[in-house]
Design goal:
With 107 residues, the protein is an alpha+beta fold. It has helices at residues 12-15, 18-30, 61-66, 69-77, and strands at 2-9, 35-42, 49-56, 87-92.
Length: 107
Amino acid sequence: MILINVKFAVKPEHADRWADITREFTEATRAEPGNKWFEWSRSLDDPHTFVLLEAFEEGDAPEKHINSPHFQAMRREFPQYLSSTPLIVSCPVPVDDWGPMGEIAVD
């Protein structure tokens, strides 16, 4: 699968509304064929930083995502809410889903 992590630095005046601002884009992406997950987290160190964890099946799912109407709308709309260009890590990984952590076991 393709694992993608994106860090968004949101302007302070928009940070508390980020879930609402991103809702339509998030829901549309989660509904895409080939999307495995699309989850937002807020940094504990900086309340204006949000991290998006997303994964897609290999093949054409990532390309279809970036060519989708909702992705193109996001490209136009999100910059007004951001204080800098998002940072990304994107790479193929040799797994298909989350797995149990080997270092911690819960009985």
